[in-house]
């Protein structure tokens, strides 16, 4: 999982959509494999790797969000229509 997350980070950095799709597929397969294991079956070494994977996933999530915000800002600037690519906002009563 750590290797798949590292591949995802590299794909995000390079903005390589093909590599990102491959990394996403790898992550999904690994998550499906991990779902079948009970948490109490994990030893200390595996817990350390899982914690490293959790941290890397959080870093990747933040990078994805930054890239998405940057793309949205560029699209807004190009279209001169701020908020055109944002979802509808919930009304507050």
TrEMBL record:
UniProt cross-references to SUPFAM superfamilies, sorted A to Z: FlgN-like
InterPro entries given in the database record: FlgN-like_sf
Swiss-Prot/TrEMBL keywords: Cell projection, Cilium, Flagellum
Entry protein name: Flagellar protein FlgN
Recorded superkingdom: Bacteria
GO biological process, one term: bacterial-type flagellum assembly
